[in-house]
């Protein structure tokens, strides 16, 4: 059958199906007790949905008796509402935010060091302290980017 199975269909995960002959054996096993059963198959994922008067546990046993590993699933599995595109955008966004925030924090630290170090404001200062501000900002940006990258994955994992 084509299309999506109805919500009341029993969904089985079937393992050990290697070819057309095995597929036929699974379908015959499922129709043995209910010849009018309607089947929806997704063989690449090893999924079979059955609309039948036979209970789901009996259908699972029938497939196992035919020599395959079968598990009864609850409901039809659906794809997550968020895909890989969302994850890529999240990683790029968090990495960029970590880079920018790291630079801002570094610039603030560099300015604070310039203001608090009495030797930086002394007459005859060569400007070395002022040159430290962009160096600290660049360094903290390079640290902030991987932190943002890691946070993107940790946040995704918690969902």
Brief overview:
The protein is built from 4 helices and 4 strands. The chain has 159 residues and is α+β, with helices and mostly antiparallel strands.
Note the main attributes of this structure.
159 residues, alpha+beta, Alpha-Beta Plaits, 4-stranded antiparallel beta sheet, 4 strands, 54% helix, membrane, HMA domain-containing protein, HMA_dom_sf, transmembrane helix
Strand and helix layout:
Blueprint: E1 10-15, H1 20-31, E2 38-42, E3 47-51, H2 56-65, E4 69-73, H3 84-116, H4 128-158
Antiparallel strand pairs: 1-3, 1-4, 2-3
Would you write up a description of this structure?
- The structure is a single chain.
- With 159 residues, the protein is α+β, with helices and mostly antiparallel strands.
- It folds into 2 domains: 10-73, Alpha-Beta Plaits; 82-158, no CATH class.
- It is 54% helix and 13% strand.
- It contains 4 helices and 4 strands.
- Strands 2-3-1-4 form a 4-stranded antiparallel sheet, with helices on one face.
- α1 (20-31) packs across α2 and α3 (84-116) runs antiparallel to α4 (128-158).
- The two termini are 35 Å apart.
